[in-house]
Amino acid sequence: EYTKEKKVGEGTYAVVYLGTKQSTGRQIAVKEIKTSEFKDGLDMSAIREVKYLQEMQHDNVIELIDIFMAYDNLNLVLEFLPTDLEVIIKDKSILFTPADIKSWMLMTLRGVHHCHRNFILHRDLKPNNLLVSPDGIIKVADFGLARAIPAPHENLTSNVVTRWYRAPELLFGARHYTSAIDIWSVGVIFAELMLRIPYLPGQNDVDQMEVTFRALGTPTDKDWPEVSSFNSYNKLQIYPPPSTFELRKRFIAASENALKFMSGMLTMNPVKRWSAIECLESEYFQEMPPPTNPSEIP
Amino acid sequence: YRHSSQYRFWSFSKEHLREKRDMTNKLAVETIEKDLFDFKALNDLTPEELNALDTKAVPLTTEEELKLIDFYAKKVQVISQHLNLPTEIIATSISFFRKFFLENSVMQFDPKNLVHTTVFLACKAENYFISVDSFAKKAKSTRESILKYEFKLLESLKFTLLIHHPYKPLHGFFLDIQNILHGKVDLNYMGQIYDRTKKKITQALLTDAVYLYTPPQITLAVLLIEDEPLITKYLELKFADNDNDDNGNEVKRKKKNSIDLTVLLSVIKECKDVIE
Amino acid sequence: DIEPRRFTIEEELYDDPFLKDLQNKKEFIASGFRTDYVYERVLTEAFM
Predict the structure, then answer these.
(1) Per-residue pLDDT band at A136 (split at 50, 70, 90)
(2) pLDDT value at residue B244
(3) Is A124 an active-site residue?
(4) How far apart are CA A104 and CA A190, in angstroms?
(5) Across the interface, which of A117, A119, A174 has its CB nearest the CB of C31?
(6) Which of A244, A242, A189 is nearest to A216 (CA)?
(7) Phi/psi of residue B214, nearest 5 degrees
(8) What is the mean pLDDT of chain B?
(9) Average pLDDT over residues A193-206
(10) Nearest-5° angle of CA A203, CA A172, CA A149?
(11) CB contact, 8 Å: B111 with chain C?
(12) Nearest-by-Cβ selection for A40 from B3, B132, B160
């Protein structure tokens, strides 16, 4: 039923091919999970991808069309998504407008909201995990690091999310974090779409804190109770949060509501950080310009 | 819930469940009879041997299979409890094991060989990662025997790994009862009910209730076993169509509930019977 | 979500010693732990 015509990518635990679903002629991507590499049987990333994609059917979450075994390999048949936001941001020949960015943010947040209302944390949101379908629809992809929101007392690993998009509570080593970590990543992606360069590109985990707090201010117990209880806190350089004026200067194309929207997602204290619903219902999406129709985005 | 793989692939009517089991058994019997036929054709057996075959190599019936599956499902529970795994992982292990033998016959796969594999895969699926070597040591098994059927298990599970268990609903009802019956229920007593119900839910997962009812219905059924008056009172107050206004006479409730109380109660009582 | 939810979260009515204990721990507060997220989760699972 499925062909593998062209190899388009190779990750740590899988090889991705382009192919066709014979019965419908639909273009597909086949993610062939390497089984020999993982000495503990089936790879955890594959287990997570299968587990969470099986539960979600949403226009802004990549569709898992089928799964099959072949020659002792596990194959995930996914919808074909030719490009991603990282490619678009880097390709300076593509000009996009604030309305285009608004459309991408709306679709991304709808996909993230769907994960969160299914109590699933994505834990690796970044531009190249936001794939774009042939008709311009954004799809959240790569659930290899996802997990269900745990039982309250469970410990979580803080070593998740690609560094530049990692929330401050993760940088401090938090073990009881919430879906707020995904919203932080979306906030950093939003900044990057406006700047067209990475917003918080730390060289390493320590530098990531430095870069984050220099840009957005070092959190204190006043705005984030108990933040000083993290043992990595006391070595920190204390920076003041940027003034609205400084933010406006940095993001000249952004409207007042766009800056409020970004600040809501990049709120240091995870308890006060906006949820996906608060983002979706924000003024930013209600003011002009309306989000571009996805099929008309360059 | 209707979007969940649990509802789409793993909920059945009693009849459908029966058919599935009979089909699984039938396919296995056919394979065995064909093998026996070939075996007899390939070897000229003495009359005693032929007689022995005909009396001993008799395939199991569906009922006999079920007894064996239940026996080993309890072993899965005991072993995962012995490994000190969290309640939800014990539940997932039991669920994986029983689903595997809904799709496969014990005459094709010796249930003994699936016990550790289901617990191991359940740990991975619930993000409770244990390396296969340390798992093998704890379970006094070998990595080869644990990994041997991992793929086959995943395939038989139709690649569905996210299971909604009745424990979170128990926590939810524990809270909502405090809201609906506020001031009318003793919290210590509620705490005891909670603990007893939680244990009973794990037992309930060894029955077919998991295929016939939703997790919250199982929770309510076990709560009904624990304290019928309390749960009936709670559900009446929550879902009854009429309210009692201040001077006690019944008035039609403004917002229509999407739950029909009589239907709900009858479903839960049925579920309670299956569990008991 | 199409139909009205079958529950409301009444935090002040809940006596949940297990959660009350967690939410006062420094590392939980600092991590951004929220009891309303837990209530939302278990009540959704109960009424799904």
Answers:
(1) very high
(2) 62
(3) yes
(4) 9
(5) A174
(6) A242
(7) -85, 160
(8) 94
(9) 96
(10) 110
(11) no
(12) B132
A213-233: pLDDT as tens digits: 999 999 999 999 999 999 889
Q: What percent of chain A clears pLDDT 70, i.e. is strictly above it?
A: 99
> Shortest CA distance to A183 belongs to which of A53, A280, A288?
A280
Task: Please state, in angstroms and as integers, the Cα–Cα distance from residue C42 to each residue in A21, A75, B150, following that order.
Answer: 40, 34, 31
Q: Rounded to whole angstroms, what are the CA distances from B200 to B89, B204, B206, B230, B251?
A: 16, 6, 10, 17, 38
Cα B238 to Cα B233: distance, rounded to the nearest angstrom: 8
Given this model, what pLDDT does residue B151 score?
92
Tokens of A267: 């709120």
For residue A139, what pLDDT is reported?
98
Residue-wise pLDDT tens digits, B187-239: 899 999 999 999 999 999 999 999 999 999 999 999 999 999 999 999 999 99
**Residues A180, C32: C-beta atoms closer than 8 Å:** yes
Cβ-Cβ pairs closer than 8 A, A with C, add up to 56
ipTM over the 0.90 cut-off: yes
B32 CB-near residues (< 8 Å, 6+ apart): B57, B59, B107
| C44 Cα to chain A: minimum distance (Å) | 9
Pick the catalytic residue: A43, A84, A100, A124?
A124
Average confidence score pLDDT of chain A: 95
Mutation target to probe the A interface, by most A beta carbons within 10 A, among C18, C27, C31, C47 is: C31
Cβ of C38 within 8 Å of Cβ of A152? The answer is yes
Could you tell me which chain B residue has the CA closest to the CA of A64? B159
Structure tokens at B17: 């469940």
**Distance of alpha carbon B90 from alpha carbon B111, whole angstroms:** 17
C chain contacts of residue A227, beta-carbon cutoff 8 Å: 30
CA distance linking residue B35 with residue B19, whole number of Å: 24
Q: What tens digit of pLDDT does each residue of C1-48 get? A: 666 788 999 999 999 988 989 999 999 999 999 999 999 999 999 998
Give CA–CA dist B253/B245, Å, rounded. Answer: 10
Chain B residues touching C19 at Cβ < 8 A: none
Strands A64-70 and A73-79: antiparallel
- For residue B247, pLDDT beyond 80: no
B162 falls in which pLDDT band (50, 70, 90)?
Answer: very high
Both structure tokens of A290: 């309306």
Q: Is the dihedral of CA B2, B7, B13, B19 positive or negative?
A: positive
Residue A177 buriedness (CB in 10 A; 0-12 / 13-18 / 19+): buried
In whole angstroms, give the CA distance from residue B243 to residue B240.
Answer: 7
